[in-house]
Amino acid sequence: MAKMIQTSFKILCVITMATSAAAFCQTSSNVEQQPWMNQRLSPDVRAQMVLSNMTLDEKIDLVHGQGMPDWGKPMQHPELGNGGAGFVLGVPRLGIPIIQMSDAAYGVRDSAQNGRYSTALPSNLASAATWEPEAACDYGALIGRELRAQGYNMSLGGGVNLMREPRDGRTFEYMGEDPVLAGTMVGNRIRCEQAQHVIANIKHFALNDQESGRDEVNVRIGERAMRESDLLAFEIGVQTGDPGAVMCAYNAVNGDYSCENKHLLTGVLKDDWKFKGFVLSDWGGTHSTVEASAAGLDNEEPTDDFYGMKLKGRSRQLNLTIMYGASFARSLPVASSIIRSKKVSWMCKRDSIRRKRLKRRASSCLRTAMAFSRSTQRGCIQLPSSDLTRTLG
Question: Quick one: three-class SS letters along 208-240?
Protein backbone atom coordinates (compact mmCIF):
# COMPACT_ATOMS: atom_id res chain seq x y z
CA MET A 1 0.00 0.00 0.00
CA ALA A 2 2.84 2.39 0.82
CA LYS A 3 4.31 1.82 -2.64
CA MET A 4 0.94 2.59 -4.22
CA ILE A 5 0.86 5.87 -2.28
CA GLN A 6 4.29 6.86 -3.56
CA THR A 7 3.34 6.35 -7.19
CA SER A 8 -0.31 7.34 -7.36
CA PHE A 9 0.21 10.89 -6.20
CA LYS A 10 3.57 11.45 -7.80
CA ILE A 11 2.55 14.44 -9.81
CA LEU A 12 5.89 14.47 -11.66
CA CYS A 13 6.05 16.64 -14.73
CA VAL A 14 2.28 17.09 -14.93
CA ILE A 15 2.54 19.60 -12.06
CA THR A 16 6.06 20.87 -12.47
CA MET A 17 5.97 21.38 -16.23
CA ALA A 18 2.90 23.53 -15.84
CA THR A 19 4.46 25.33 -12.89
CA SER A 20 7.51 26.21 -14.93
CA ALA A 21 5.30 27.33 -17.81
CA ALA A 22 3.46 29.77 -15.61
CA ALA A 23 6.76 31.12 -14.35
CA PHE A 24 7.59 32.47 -17.80
CA CYS A 25 4.45 34.61 -17.73
CA GLN A 26 5.16 36.10 -14.35
CA THR A 27 4.89 39.70 -13.29
CA SER A 28 6.05 41.27 -10.05
CA SER A 29 2.50 41.36 -8.73
CA ASN A 30 1.69 37.70 -9.25
CA VAL A 31 5.07 36.68 -7.83
CA GLU A 32 4.05 38.35 -4.61
CA GLN A 33 0.72 36.50 -4.66
CA GLN A 34 2.22 33.21 -5.90
CA PRO A 35 5.79 32.98 -4.59
CA TRP A 36 6.47 29.67 -6.37
CA MET A 37 6.72 31.67 -9.60
CA ASN A 38 9.81 33.44 -8.35
CA GLN A 39 12.61 32.12 -10.58
CA ARG A 40 15.22 33.29 -8.10
CA LEU A 41 14.14 30.49 -5.78
CA SER A 42 15.41 26.96 -6.28
CA PRO A 43 13.20 24.57 -8.28
CA ASP A 44 12.81 22.37 -5.20
CA VAL A 45 11.48 25.21 -3.08
CA ARG A 46 9.11 26.36 -5.81
CA ALA A 47 7.73 22.86 -6.30
CA GLN A 48 7.14 22.39 -2.60
CA MET A 49 5.35 25.71 -2.41
CA VAL A 50 2.90 24.93 -5.19
CA LEU A 51 2.30 21.37 -4.01
CA SER A 52 1.52 22.52 -0.50
CA ASN A 53 -1.18 24.80 -1.89
CA MET A 54 -2.97 22.12 -3.91
CA THR A 55 -6.06 20.28 -2.75
CA LEU A 56 -6.57 16.54 -3.18
CA ASP A 57 -9.09 17.17 -5.97
CA GLU A 58 -6.59 19.34 -7.83
CA LYS A 59 -3.96 16.64 -7.58
CA ILE A 60 -6.39 14.04 -8.84
CA ASP A 61 -7.20 16.23 -11.87
CA LEU A 62 -3.51 16.34 -12.73
CA VAL A 63 -3.04 12.57 -12.95
CA HIS A 64 -5.61 11.85 -15.66
CA GLY A 65 -6.89 13.29 -18.93
CA GLN A 66 -10.20 14.99 -19.60
CA GLY A 67 -11.20 12.87 -22.58
CA MET A 68 -10.76 13.04 -26.34
CA PRO A 69 -13.29 13.94 -29.03
CA ASP A 70 -15.13 10.83 -30.24
CA TRP A 71 -13.41 8.61 -27.67
CA GLY A 72 -15.62 6.75 -25.20
CA LYS A 73 -17.62 8.82 -22.78
CA PRO A 74 -18.26 12.53 -23.42
CA MET A 75 -15.50 14.95 -22.53
CA GLN A 76 -15.96 16.62 -19.15
CA HIS A 77 -14.84 20.08 -20.28
CA PRO A 78 -14.94 20.12 -24.11
CA GLU A 79 -14.80 23.90 -24.20
CA LEU A 80 -11.24 23.78 -22.80
CA GLY A 81 -9.85 21.47 -25.49
CA ASN A 82 -7.70 22.56 -28.42
CA GLY A 83 -8.82 19.98 -30.96
CA GLY A 84 -5.96 17.60 -30.16
CA ALA A 85 -5.65 14.18 -28.55
CA GLY A 86 -6.69 15.43 -25.12
CA PHE A 87 -5.64 17.64 -22.25
CA VAL A 88 -4.88 17.66 -18.54
CA LEU A 89 -6.57 20.28 -16.40
CA GLY A 90 -4.43 22.95 -14.84
CA VAL A 91 -5.01 24.83 -11.60
CA PRO A 92 -5.91 28.40 -12.60
CA ARG A 93 -5.91 29.76 -9.07
CA LEU A 94 -2.26 28.71 -8.72
CA GLY A 95 -1.23 29.79 -12.20
CA ILE A 96 -0.85 26.21 -13.46
CA PRO A 97 -1.96 26.03 -17.12
CA ILE A 98 -3.68 23.22 -19.02
CA ILE A 99 -1.41 20.68 -20.70
CA GLN A 100 -2.67 20.54 -24.31
CA MET A 101 -1.53 17.40 -26.17
CA SER A 102 -1.43 16.59 -29.87
CA ASP A 103 -0.33 13.59 -31.89
CA ALA A 104 2.71 14.73 -33.81
CA ALA A 105 4.60 11.73 -35.17
CA TYR A 106 5.36 13.35 -38.54
CA GLY A 107 3.64 16.71 -38.09
CA VAL A 108 0.82 18.20 -36.06
CA ARG A 109 -2.21 15.96 -36.53
CA ASP A 110 -5.62 17.19 -37.71
CA SER A 111 -4.38 20.69 -38.47
CA ALA A 112 -6.57 21.09 -41.55
CA GLN A 113 -9.56 19.65 -39.70
CA ASN A 114 -9.05 22.34 -37.07
CA GLY A 115 -8.63 25.08 -39.67
CA ARG A 116 -4.86 25.37 -39.16
CA TYR A 117 -1.64 24.79 -41.07
CA SER A 118 1.15 22.28 -40.53
CA THR A 119 4.00 21.09 -42.73
CA ALA A 120 3.68 17.71 -44.47
CA LEU A 121 6.84 15.92 -43.36
CA PRO A 122 8.47 12.72 -44.65
CA SER A 123 7.77 9.66 -42.51
CA ASN A 124 9.86 8.96 -39.43
CA LEU A 125 11.33 6.01 -41.29
CA ALA A 126 12.52 8.38 -44.02
CA SER A 127 14.00 10.64 -41.35
CA ALA A 128 15.98 7.71 -39.94
CA ALA A 129 17.12 6.83 -43.48
CA THR A 130 19.10 10.08 -43.62
CA TRP A 131 21.49 8.81 -40.91
CA GLU A 132 21.80 12.48 -39.94
CA PRO A 133 21.21 13.54 -36.33
CA GLU A 134 21.07 17.13 -37.57
CA ALA A 135 18.20 16.21 -39.88
CA ALA A 136 16.39 14.59 -36.95
CA CYS A 137 16.98 17.77 -34.96
CA ASP A 138 15.48 19.93 -37.71
CA TYR A 139 12.54 17.51 -37.93
CA GLY A 140 11.81 17.83 -34.21
CA ALA A 141 12.36 21.58 -34.09
CA LEU A 142 9.90 22.08 -36.96
CA ILE A 143 7.21 20.05 -35.19
CA GLY A 144 7.87 21.85 -31.91
CA ARG A 145 7.42 25.26 -33.51
CA GLU A 146 4.18 24.28 -35.20
CA LEU A 147 2.81 22.70 -32.03
CA ARG A 148 3.40 25.89 -30.12
CA ALA A 149 1.99 28.00 -32.95
CA GLN A 150 -1.25 26.03 -32.70
CA GLY A 151 -1.54 26.37 -28.92
CA TYR A 152 -0.19 22.95 -27.88
CA ASN A 153 2.50 22.39 -25.29
CA MET A 154 2.96 18.62 -25.46
CA SER A 155 3.85 16.31 -28.34
CA LEU A 156 2.75 12.69 -28.55
CA GLY A 157 5.29 11.75 -31.24
CA GLY A 158 8.64 10.09 -30.64
CA GLY A 159 7.84 6.52 -31.69
CA VAL A 160 10.89 4.24 -31.55
CA ASN A 161 9.56 0.68 -31.58
CA LEU A 162 11.75 -1.54 -33.74
CA MET A 163 10.61 -2.96 -37.06
CA ARG A 164 10.34 -6.62 -36.05
CA GLU A 165 7.13 -7.27 -38.02
CA PRO A 166 7.21 -5.80 -41.58
CA ARG A 167 3.40 -5.76 -41.68
CA ASP A 168 3.17 -3.56 -38.58
CA GLY A 169 0.64 -0.87 -39.40
CA ARG A 170 2.69 1.90 -37.77
CA THR A 171 6.16 1.14 -39.12
CA PHE A 172 6.15 4.50 -40.92
CA GLU A 173 6.02 6.21 -37.49
CA TYR A 174 9.12 4.43 -36.22
CA MET A 175 12.87 4.58 -36.93
CA GLY A 176 13.68 1.22 -38.50
CA GLU A 177 15.17 -1.98 -37.15
CA ASP A 178 18.55 -0.89 -35.78
CA PRO A 179 18.30 0.12 -32.08
CA VAL A 180 21.40 2.31 -32.10
CA LEU A 181 20.35 4.29 -35.16
CA ALA A 182 16.72 4.49 -34.00
CA GLY A 183 17.62 5.66 -30.51
CA THR A 184 20.12 8.22 -31.76
CA MET A 185 17.71 9.70 -34.26
CA VAL A 186 14.68 9.85 -31.96
CA GLY A 187 16.80 11.29 -29.17
CA ASN A 188 17.98 14.16 -31.34
CA ARG A 189 14.46 14.74 -32.59
CA ILE A 190 13.22 14.98 -28.98
CA ARG A 191 16.09 17.20 -27.88
CA CYS A 192 15.35 19.81 -30.53
CA GLU A 193 11.58 19.49 -30.20
CA GLN A 194 11.81 20.35 -26.51
CA ALA A 195 14.12 23.26 -27.33
CA GLN A 196 10.97 24.86 -28.77
CA HIS A 197 9.42 24.87 -25.28
CA VAL A 198 7.06 21.94 -25.66
CA ILE A 199 7.08 18.66 -23.74
CA ALA A 200 8.29 15.78 -25.92
CA ASN A 201 7.30 12.15 -25.59
CA ILE A 202 8.94 8.83 -26.46
CA LYS A 203 6.76 5.77 -27.11
CA HIS A 204 5.45 3.01 -27.00
CA PHE A 205 7.27 1.54 -24.02
CA ALA A 206 7.92 -1.27 -24.72
CA LEU A 207 8.04 -3.94 -27.46
CA ASN A 208 4.90 -2.65 -29.17
CA ASP A 209 6.03 -4.02 -32.53
CA GLN A 210 2.67 -4.95 -34.10
CA GLU A 211 -0.75 -3.33 -34.39
CA SER A 212 -2.93 -6.41 -34.93
CA GLY A 213 -3.90 -7.73 -31.52
CA ARG A 214 -1.89 -5.06 -29.74
CA ASP A 215 -4.24 -5.16 -26.75
CA GLU A 216 -3.98 -8.95 -26.40
CA VAL A 217 -0.41 -9.84 -27.40
CA ASN A 218 2.00 -10.91 -24.66
CA VAL A 219 5.63 -10.48 -25.70
CA ARG A 220 7.77 -13.18 -24.12
CA ILE A 221 11.44 -12.24 -24.24
CA GLY A 222 14.57 -12.72 -22.14
CA GLU A 223 16.17 -9.86 -20.25
CA ARG A 224 19.39 -9.74 -22.24
CA ALA A 225 17.63 -9.92 -25.60
CA MET A 226 15.26 -7.17 -24.53
CA ARG A 227 18.05 -4.91 -23.25
CA GLU A 228 20.13 -5.33 -26.39
CA SER A 229 17.31 -4.67 -28.85
CA ASP A 230 14.08 -2.77 -28.20
CA LEU A 231 15.05 -1.36 -24.81
CA LEU A 232 18.40 -0.21 -26.17
CA ALA A 233 16.64 2.10 -28.62
CA PHE A 234 14.60 3.59 -25.78
CA GLU A 235 17.63 3.91 -23.52
CA ILE A 236 19.61 5.84 -26.12
CA GLY A 237 16.58 8.00 -26.90
CA VAL A 238 15.95 8.82 -23.23
CA GLN A 239 19.60 9.61 -22.52
CA THR A 240 20.05 11.70 -25.68
CA GLY A 241 16.76 13.58 -25.70
CA ASP A 242 15.81 13.69 -22.00
CA PRO A 243 12.07 13.62 -22.85
CA GLY A 244 9.55 15.02 -20.43
CA ALA A 245 7.27 12.00 -20.85
CA VAL A 246 7.28 8.30 -21.75
CA MET A 247 4.12 6.62 -23.07
CA CYS A 248 3.65 3.00 -22.05
CA ALA A 249 2.28 0.53 -24.60
CA TYR A 250 -0.89 -1.53 -25.00
CA ASN A 251 0.75 -4.95 -25.10
CA ALA A 252 1.89 -7.11 -22.22
CA VAL A 253 5.55 -8.00 -21.66
CA ASN A 254 6.32 -11.30 -19.98
CA GLY A 255 2.81 -11.55 -18.57
CA ASP A 256 2.19 -7.99 -17.32
CA TYR A 257 0.59 -5.13 -19.26
CA SER A 258 3.20 -2.53 -20.17
CA CYS A 259 1.29 0.16 -18.25
CA GLU A 260 1.38 -1.88 -15.05
CA ASN A 261 4.72 -3.58 -15.59
CA LYS A 262 6.84 -2.67 -12.59
CA HIS A 263 10.02 -4.10 -14.05
CA LEU A 264 9.76 -1.84 -17.11
CA LEU A 265 8.34 1.36 -15.60
CA THR A 266 10.20 1.43 -12.30
CA GLY A 267 13.05 -1.06 -12.49
CA VAL A 268 14.35 -0.18 -15.95
CA LEU A 269 13.04 3.29 -16.75
CA LYS A 270 13.12 5.11 -13.44
CA ASP A 271 15.75 3.20 -11.46
CA ASP A 272 18.27 2.04 -14.04
CA TRP A 273 17.96 4.92 -16.51
CA LYS A 274 17.16 7.61 -13.91
CA PHE A 275 14.27 8.92 -16.00
CA LYS A 276 12.94 12.09 -14.35
CA GLY A 277 9.78 12.75 -16.34
CA PHE A 278 6.32 11.20 -16.07
CA VAL A 279 4.81 8.03 -17.53
CA LEU A 280 1.43 8.33 -19.25
CA SER A 281 -0.63 5.49 -20.63
CA ASP A 282 -1.41 4.99 -24.28
CA TRP A 283 -5.03 5.91 -24.92
CA GLY A 284 -7.12 3.35 -23.07
CA GLY A 285 -4.03 1.43 -21.99
CA THR A 286 -4.68 1.64 -18.23
CA HIS A 287 -6.17 -1.52 -16.71
CA SER A 288 -6.15 -0.91 -12.96
CA THR A 289 -5.73 1.60 -10.16
CA VAL A 290 -3.57 -0.01 -7.49
CA GLU A 291 -1.47 -2.26 -9.76
CA ALA A 292 -0.78 0.48 -12.30
CA SER A 293 0.16 3.13 -9.75
CA ALA A 294 2.35 0.68 -7.83
CA ALA A 295 4.12 -0.23 -11.07
CA GLY A 296 4.98 3.40 -11.88
CA LEU A 297 2.19 4.75 -14.11
CA ASP A 298 1.76 8.45 -13.34
CA ASN A 299 -0.98 9.64 -15.68
CA GLU A 300 -4.00 7.89 -17.22
CA GLU A 301 -5.12 8.92 -20.69
CA PRO A 302 -7.45 9.97 -22.08
CA THR A 303 -10.06 9.64 -19.30
CA ASP A 304 -10.34 8.96 -15.57
CA ASP A 305 -11.63 5.38 -15.45
CA PHE A 306 -8.97 4.32 -12.94
CA TYR A 307 -7.16 7.51 -11.85
CA GLY A 308 -10.27 9.58 -11.09
CA MET A 309 -12.83 8.70 -8.43
CA LYS A 310 -11.35 5.23 -7.91
CA LEU A 311 -7.98 6.72 -7.04
CA LYS A 312 -9.58 9.35 -4.84
CA GLY A 313 -11.59 6.66 -3.07
CA ARG A 314 -8.43 4.72 -2.31
CA SER A 315 -6.68 7.83 -1.02
CA ARG A 316 -9.38 8.51 1.54
CA GLN A 317 -8.58 5.20 3.19
CA LEU A 318 -4.97 6.27 3.71
CA ASN A 319 -3.10 8.52 6.08
CA LEU A 320 -3.05 11.89 4.31
CA THR A 321 0.11 13.01 6.10
CA ILE A 322 1.99 10.05 4.64
CA MET A 323 0.40 10.63 1.26
CA TYR A 324 1.44 14.26 1.00
CA GLY A 325 4.91 13.47 2.32
CA ALA A 326 5.39 10.87 -0.40
CA SER A 327 4.06 13.27 -2.99
CA PHE A 328 6.61 15.90 -2.02
CA ALA A 329 9.48 13.40 -1.92
CA ARG A 330 8.76 12.03 -5.39
CA SER A 331 7.84 15.35 -7.04
CA LEU A 332 10.70 17.57 -5.88
CA PRO A 333 13.49 16.09 -8.02
CA VAL A 334 11.18 16.20 -11.05
CA ALA A 335 10.31 19.83 -10.40
CA SER A 336 14.00 20.67 -10.12
CA SER A 337 14.78 19.03 -13.47
CA ILE A 338 11.82 20.42 -15.40
CA ILE A 339 12.00 23.99 -14.13
CA ARG A 340 15.77 24.21 -14.51
CA SER A 341 15.74 22.96 -18.11
CA LYS A 342 12.67 25.06 -19.05
CA LYS A 343 10.93 22.26 -20.91
CA VAL A 344 7.72 24.25 -21.11
CA SER A 345 7.49 27.98 -21.55
CA TRP A 346 5.85 30.74 -23.54
CA MET A 347 2.43 29.32 -22.76
CA CYS A 348 0.82 32.75 -22.54
CA LYS A 349 0.97 33.26 -26.29
CA ARG A 350 1.15 31.42 -29.58
CA ASP A 351 4.19 31.82 -31.74
CA SER A 352 4.44 32.86 -35.37
CA ILE A 353 6.56 30.70 -37.68
CA ARG A 354 8.35 31.14 -40.99
CA ARG A 355 6.66 28.80 -43.45
CA LYS A 356 9.28 28.93 -46.21
CA ARG A 357 12.10 27.92 -43.87
CA LEU A 358 10.10 24.98 -42.55
CA LYS A 359 9.27 23.80 -46.07
CA ARG A 360 12.95 23.96 -47.05
CA ARG A 361 13.93 21.83 -44.07
CA ALA A 362 11.23 19.26 -44.83
CA SER A 363 12.34 19.08 -48.46
CA SER A 364 15.99 18.71 -47.44
CA CYS A 365 15.13 15.79 -45.16
CA LEU A 366 13.18 14.08 -47.94
CA ARG A 367 15.95 14.53 -50.53
CA THR A 368 18.57 13.07 -48.19
CA ALA A 369 16.36 10.08 -47.35
CA MET A 370 15.70 9.42 -51.05
CA ALA A 371 19.42 9.62 -51.85
CA PHE A 372 20.23 6.95 -49.28
CA SER A 373 17.34 4.85 -50.53
CA ARG A 374 18.71 4.91 -54.08
CA SER A 375 22.18 4.01 -52.82
CA THR A 376 20.73 1.04 -50.94
CA GLN A 377 18.94 -0.21 -54.06
CA ARG A 378 22.28 -0.17 -55.89
CA GLY A 379 23.73 -2.38 -53.17
CA CYS A 380 25.83 0.18 -51.32
CA ILE A 381 25.53 3.18 -49.08
CA GLN A 382 28.17 5.85 -49.53
CA LEU A 383 28.42 7.13 -45.98
CA PRO A 384 31.65 8.95 -45.04
CA SER A 385 33.33 7.54 -41.95
CA SER A 386 33.11 10.94 -40.26
CA ASP A 387 29.33 10.92 -40.68
CA LEU A 388 29.09 7.39 -39.31
CA THR A 389 31.09 8.37 -36.24
CA ARG A 390 28.95 11.44 -35.70
CA THR A 391 25.73 9.44 -36.06
CA LEU A 392 26.54 6.39 -33.96
CA GLY A 393 29.12 7.85 -31.62
Answer: CCCCCCCCCCEECCCHHHHHCCHHHHHHHHHHH
Q: How confident is the model at residue 369 (pLDDT cuts 50, 70, 90)?
A: low
Q: Are strands 256-257 and 252-253 parallel, antiparallel or unpaired?
A: antiparallel
Angstrom distance (rounded) from CA 188 to CA 202: 12
Catalytic residues: 282
Burial 44-59 (b: 16+ CB within 10 A, else e): bebbbbbbeebeeebb
Rg (CA), the chain: 20
Question: What percent of the chain shows pLDDT beyond 90?
Answer: 43
pLDDT for the residue numbered 157 = 92
Cα gap 238→201, rounded to integer Å: 10
The fold of the 2-392 domain, in CATH, is: TIM Barrel (3.20.20)
> What per-residue confidence (pLDDT) applies to 181?
97
Query: Is the Cβ–Cβ distance between 358 and 121 less than 8 Å?
Result: no
Q: Percentage of the chain with pLDDT > 70? A: 71
Query: Cα torsion for 3, 6, 7, 12, to the nearest 10°?
Result: -160
Most confident region among 133-137, 339-343, 380-384 by mean pLDDT: 133-137
**Torsion sign (Cα): 243, 245, 247, 253:** positive
User: Residues 253, 219: contact at Cβ < 8 Å?
Assistant: yes
Helix axes 355-377, 133-149, angle to 10 degrees: 150
Domain residue extents for the chain: 2-392
List, for residues 206-251, the tens digit of each pLDDT value. 999 988 889 999 999 999 999 999 999 999 999 999 998 999 999 9
Buried/exposed 188-205: b ≥16 CB within 10 Å, e otherwise: bbbbbbbbbbbbbbbbbb
Of the candidates 199, 188, 150, 156, the one whose C-alpha atom is nearest the C-alpha of residue 344 is: 199
Residue 339 · residue 47 · CB < 8 Å: yes
Between 22-26, 38-42, 152-156, 189-193, the lowest mean confidence (pLDDT) is in 22-26
